[in-house]
Amino acid sequence: MDKIFSGVQPTGNLHIGNYLGAIKNFVELQNNTKQSTCYYCVVDLHAITVWQDPTKLKKDTLETVACFIAAGIDPKKSIIFNQSKVSIHSELAWIFNCVCRMGWLNRMTQFKEKAGKNRENVSVGLFTYPVLMASDILAYKSNKVPVGEDQKQHLELARDIAKKFNNDFEVDFFPEVEPLIFGGATRVMSLRNGLNKMSKSDISDYSRINIMDSKDLIVNKIKKAKTDSSVIMGEEVLDETGKLSKEIINQRPEACNLLQIFSAISEVSIKETLKNFEGKEFRLLKEALADALIKKIFPIGNEVRKMLNEENYLTEVLEEGAQKAKEQAEENLKEIKNIIGFI
Ligand code: AQP
Questions:
Q1: 339 alpha carbon to ligand 1 midpoint, in Å?
Q2: Is 295 a catalytic residue?
Q3: Is 200 a catalytic residue?
Q4: In what helix (H) or strand (E) does residue 323 lie, and over which residues does it extend?
Q5: Contact at 8 Å (CB) between 183 and 20?
Q6: Strand, helix or coil at 8?
Q7: Which one, out of 77, 146, 182, 213, has a CA that is 20 to 30 A from the CA of 156?
Q8: DSSP labels for 237-248?
């Protein structure tokens, strides 16, 4: 039986990158893999690796749970909880801190990007973040992790930690972690600069479509999205696997990003999308994209707004989920401690 685990940070501004790269796939896995257990976690411990205002953190945590449910995650089918409620994540992270090697963490590109020139002043937590992520996954002995492409390197590290633990203690305890990176848009790019990932922390709100955006804002942001001066390309830009080729993405990053978002949101293949828009101006693609986003994303945001009035319900979901998660994780931790030699 598969155990599926994934998390989203409650850092506000949930956007269509988080939806298409992760949350949409969480729903699909919940509905299509009946024999699996799905753990979907609001990773608040990860959020505090950078400063979070306590009032805002609470609000963003509730908003993230509401977004999970509004997007189709059913708390009766999946285990929804917040990370700080299950202390085993932190306990196992310490154990893994002692398994993971400095050199492995030094290679993490996301740390380099996030710390930038400020390396000496960022939190130690930001550096060891991938170790906590490994413990999130392995506390449940999860073997499948649906994520956006940006998390691939962190999952390779989780795999290395599990392997080293098994080797060091000569056990076959942790499973091999497999990243599930699928769907039409595994790396959604900024609407202002097609070379940057769409991100919650981008200072420009016009770089992303937030789940909570109004219809007018969606239309405006798409209207203002950066494009280039050529018309839309045709099917010749697809590679042998049927995806947009690396060359065309390098040449026309913004055009490719809009086409990919349209294809993923409207669930029309990229081939069909190119066929429909070949030789046309971007204005037409933008109109269709804004319509598709209003049809798909706006109702989720609306549902989130309604659900935020039911704070008790949302906190109950987290409480119940945490209880279920704890049961499984406690059993595993007991075995892990025994393997290590803790009495
Ligand atoms: N642009 C993206 N395209 C596809 N998937 C994405 N994800 C994030 N951005 C994109 C996926 O969403 C899940 C939750 O992400 P997260 O909240 O844990 O943190 P993140 O990856 O750091 O997301 P952001 O939006 O870029 O936040 P900031 O700006 O705070 O760093 C993950 O599965 C992620 O892959």
A1: 34
A2: no
A3: yes
A4: helix 311-340
A5: yes
A6: strand
A7: 77
A8: GB-TTSSBPHHH
Q: Ligand 1 atom 34: the closest Cα is on which residue?
A: 148
Give the chain's domains with CATH numbers: 3-185+310-340 (3.40.50.620), 205-307 (1.10.240.10)
What are phi and psi for residue 188, nearest 5 degrees?
-85, 135
Q: For residue 34, what pLDDT is reported?
A: 76
- pLDDT at position 33: 81
Token pair of 32 as six digits: 């299509």
Question: Distances in Å between the alpha carbon of 93 and those of 83, 89, 98, 218?
Answer: 12, 6, 9, 40
DSSP single-letter state for residue 117: G
Two structure tokens written together for 98: 């002692």
* Residue 187, ligand 1, Cβ within 6 A: yes
Residue 31 tokens read as 């509905």
Residues with Cβ within 8 Å of residue 96, at least 6 apart in sequence: 131, 134, 135, 138, 161, 165
Q: Which residue has the tokens 């749970």?
A: 65
How far are the Cα atoms of 150, 162, 216, 283, 301 from residue 113, in angstroms, in the given order? 12, 25, 33, 34, 30
CA of 140 to the centre of ligand 1 (A): 22
Mean pLDDT by 10 residues, the chain (343 residues): 96 97 97 91 98 98 98 98 98 98 97 92 97 98 97 98 98 97 95 96 97 98 96 96 95 97 97 97 97 98 97 98 97 98 97
User: Counting atoms of ligand 1 from 1, which one is nearest the CA of 15?
Assistant: 25
How far apart, in whole angstroms, are the C-alpha atoms of residue 343 and residue 249? 55
